[in-house]
Amino acid sequence: MKRRSLLLSGAAVGGALLVGWSVMPPRSRLGNAALWPPVPGEVALNGWIKIASDGAVVLAMNRSEMGQGVHTALAMLVAEELDVPLERVRLQQAGYDAIFGSAESFVGFLPFHADDREAGQESLTFRGARWMTLKLARELGINITGGSASVADGWMPLRLAAATARARLLGVASLRWKLPVAELEVRDGVVSHGSGLRAPYGELAAQAALSPPGDVTLKARSAFRVIGHPAQRVDLAGKCDGRAVFGLDVRLPGLVYASILQPPMLGGSFATVDVNAVLQRPGVERVVRLPPLDGASAALAVVGRTTWHAREAARALSVQWRAPPSGPLDSKRIEAALETAARDAAERQGGFSFHSRGDSKSALAAAAKRVEALYRAPYLAHATMEPMNCTARVHEGRVEVWAPTQVPGLARDAAARVAGVKPDAVTVHVTYLGGGFGRRLEVDFIAQAVRVAQETAGRPVQLNWSREEDFTHDFYRPAAAALLRAGLDANGRVTVFDARSAGDALEPRWMQRVLPALSGPFDAPDKTTVEGLYDLPYAIEHQLIAHVSTKSGVPIGNWRSVGHSQNAFFAESFIDELAHAAAVDPLKFRLDLLGHRPRHAAVLTLAAQKAGWGRPLPAGRARGLALHESFGTIVAQVIEVSLADKQPRVHRVVCALDCGVVVHPQGVAQQVESSVVFGLSAALFGRIDIEGGVVKQKNFPDYPMLTLAQTPVIETHTVPSDDAPTGMGEPALPPVAPALANALFALTGRRLRELPLAPLLT
Amino acid sequence: MNLTINDRNVAVDDAQIDPGMPLLWVLRDVLQMTGTKYSCGVAACGACTVLIDGAAVRSCVMPVSSLQGKAVRTIEGLVGPGGPHPLQQAWIEHQVPQCGYCQSGMLMAAAALLETNRDPSDADIDAAMTNLCRCGSYPRVRAAIKSAARQLAPRRRAGNR
Question: pLDDT (tens digit, 9 = 90+) per residue, A76-128?
């Protein structure tokens, strides 16, 4: 992380000064036809687009489908600009060229305050840094499906690629018919002229590949026929009849199965192993010892005829484990230390300051009323429904990998490192992902599979983790604590907000695991530790938001919405506390601080209206609200809750949002539903405990998640916008916990300042 | 041993399996029928749900040796001779799947529900659909089941036309 982080934060700081660099144009993301492996009957028009002889459009799909609907949304962009029906777009996995890398995800790393990046009012510094970052990211070309950035990232390059292809096809028709392009029309992939001339794309493609595109213009929004209109997801059929291939569904001739056994203790290793008894079992072939790879522990893998044979043998292995040299981890102790660190930072003006304005110390001292609260969030597991797995074959110096991964290029690098080959000797086939949520930004399971495949004499091996391995060897959402302080003036207006948080910085650890070549000797400040806390939209004159980065030793990683997942709970619960301290309605209190933020105010107002904020509810029910921006999208939620047998019952979640142009309306609604359910699971029940170095939660019964019966009515309302699209896979998650906690406060008068909430009420 | 899967007699080589082996792994790793999913291995999540004599069963804990003479139906056999099951149509109409990993089990659990209850109430759906979904497809699962139930109820369908 460090070097790139420095590079990026250097870019951020120096952006405005380095305008001279702008004489060098950013690397084009159009790419050329040579990026495609040749296929008879298909003509490539650029790095993204091919036309098949039947007129179908083949799109190079660079992003992984993990449920978020990205295959559909990106195909819609291309269908729009090429004027073909969505079902005529076929997807083919993209290669590894830099054009397929992520640019917008890296802009998300920039530690800019909301004041700098408000759409339409971006500061010069932000614009400069953004431009530089995009340019650098294009050079790096790292392909990440993450940071809710896929549609934002594809918005320009994909539409431009499609529009360029369309312009070339039209140009050929124009030449053939000796008619100006302006007189031609395209419908459903057929170019036509009022005179009755018609030519489908398939007939024009070969010549188009040799022709220049001429003038390329993107469609005006008013001309959209696909974007913003209802569309059927492209991945539905196979997901309803069992044909969709997830990582665990890869079946190859000669496939053997390997089950992993990792030390029960995090960071542990094995002292002695007796494999003999296990090797006598029918259907068991061998036991492979794995060194610690890309963040994984040292481990054992049992290779067998079926997953069952391998797994039963792995369970039966006789192993003596060794604790890590630093001793066993204990989450209670860590969480207590975080609390102490946050309190110390508040007392001594400590922590790395991510945002500072005015003089928070003096303003706190001068406040008519002070409010102070300590908030806490636990470790969380990803718990994807498909456990970690990867299939690999190592044969004659070549490596082939079939993997549910969010990072195909980094997976390729990891496979190459383990096998000792160059990356171009590795092919990664990306399957469907049975959930990702950030867990599949890691490459530990890929490295393990390749290592095992080195021992199976050229036969492919499917490495699978049991659910228990998956829960106990995750890269967890880090635990965090924050001491929040604020002051109100005599009129009840908040004048100062001071936040001191503590927790592990996760991006440097992630970089060490997956991008070791770019990882340097020290940690750069990690913006994810304070995202959603340092960049509040509210007009508060004095602010200081600082973070103490700890190193607990617990493996931590990106968990859906990352730092926002806990910081929104801290910030929006605390804002609610301030509203009550000021004796002002929580909606009005927020709106009063959003005069300079019309988009935030509009989203909040829409949610309140749709939820009937202020209207009476049946006895025993209450509402809470929260407003939070993440990944460029502004989301407000109003949650209705009651208590039954001392347990919260969530009835209704009304969600309003501004995500720029809506590309796929049902996709947006699905991601709201998804984020709300995921967020409610975490807010109500989610916690990972580590005792004696061992994760206590080993399977779903230990880690409750929302069920269908517990799921509320979820409504999605979007604010119309002409801005470029922003994230949707994560932004509806962060406001769930605070909206729920605020509703529970309204219901019970109890302010709940730690997660999960349900156990606090029993 | 012989199994009856999706109305077909399937011979399983006894040397490939052991008697305690759960049906899930016989389906997935021996018969290469990968539509039925592994997720928890302890009958907690329902991703491995299949029908045995019409009832929803979690195949990850169902020893294959207990299935002699019983009829197994998997997601691969949910499509009937007349085309997709009404549930599959409703699933597409309501855009239920996201990642899709749990959906085979969801569909089979819903099929079992509709086998015995052609007009399930919300409470019936709550009780029958205990499968876990991490993507939060639940509201659409509920809506799709109701929609399929309407398709399956002949009197109502006649009434609508």
Answer: 999 999 999 999 999 999 999 999 998 887 887 788 887 888 878 888 888 88
* Residue type present at position B42: V
Q: What is the CA radius of gyration of chain A?
A: 27
Rounded-to-integer distance, Cα B44 and Cα A587, Å: 41
Q: Are A747 and A642 in contact (CB under 8 A)?
A: yes
| Cβ within 8 Å, pair A306-B30 | yes
Q: How many domains does chain A have?
A: 3
Which positions in chain B touch A238 (Cβ < 8 Å)?
Answer: 100
Range of the domain at A442: 247-325+388-464
For chain A, list residues with pLDDT below 50: 1-22
Cα pseudo-dihedral A589, A592, A594, A598, rounded to 10: 120
Structural domains of chain B, ranges and CATH numbers in brackets:
2-77 (3.10.20.30), 86-160 (1.10.150.120)
Residues of B in contact with A673 (CB under 8 A): 136-140
Instruction: Using 70 as the pLDDT threshold, list the residues of chain B that sit under it.
Output: 154-161
A674 neighbors A67 (Cβ within 8 angstroms): yes
Distance CA A563, CA A477 (A): 8
d(CA A376, CA A2): 27
Helix (H, G, I), strand (E, B) or coil at A760: helix
Can you give the CATH number for the domain in which A663 is found?
3.30.365.10
Which of A709, A761, A719 minimizes the C-alpha distance to A740? A761
How many helices (H) does chain B have, and how many strands (E)? 6, 5
**Chain A residues with CB-CB distance to B39 below 8 A:** 385-387, 434, 467
Closest residue of chain B to A712, computed from CA coordinates: B139
Cα distance between residue A343 and residue A501, in whole Å: 9
Q: Are A160 and A309 part of one and the same domain?
A: no
Task: Decide which of A197, A212, A240 is a domain's last residue.
Answer: A240
Residues A225-228: contacts with CB within 8 Å, 24+ apart?
Answer: A225/A80, A225/A83, A226/A76, A226/A79, A226/A80, A226/A86, A227/A76, A227/A77, A227/A80, A227/A661, A227/A663, A228/A661, A228/A662, A228/A663, A228/A665
Q: Per residue in A513-534, pLDDT tens?
A: 998 888 878 888 999 999 999 9
Establish, for the pair of chains A and B, how many residue pairs have beta carbons separated by less than 8 Å.
182
Chain B hits for A385, CB-CB cut-off 8 Å, are 37, 39, 45, 47, 99, 101-102, 132-135
Buried b (16+ CB within 10 A) or exposed e, B48-58: bbbbbeeebbb
Residue at A53 is within a domain: yes
Q: Is residue A131 part of a domain?
A: no
Task: Name the token pair of A538.
Answer: 């509210």
How many angstroms separate the CA atoms of B24 and A378, rounded? 34
In a domain, A113, yes or no: no
Last residue of a domain, one of A213, A240, A267: A240
- B contact residues 13-72, partner A, Cβ 8 Å cutoff: 16-18, 21-22, 25, 28-30, 32-42, 44-45, 47
Whether A10 maps to a domain, the answer reads no
CA distance A542 to A387: 46
Is B102 in Cβ contact with A242 (below 8 Å)? no
A186 and A292 assigned to the same domain = no
Residue A724 φ/ψ, nearest 5 degrees: -60, 150
Q: Which residue intervals of A531-664 are DSSP H helices?
A: 564-581, 586-592, 598-611
Please check whether residue A632 is in contact with residue A729, taking contact to mean a CB–CB distance below 8 angstroms: no
Residue B18: predicted pLDDT: 87
pLDDT tens-digit map of A336-392 = 999 999 999 999 999 999 999 999 999 999 999 999 999 999 999 999 999 999 999
Please tell me the predicted confidence (pLDDT) of residue A28.
85
Asked if A228 and A294 sit in the same domain, the reply is no
Q: What ipTM was reported for this prediction? A: 0.96
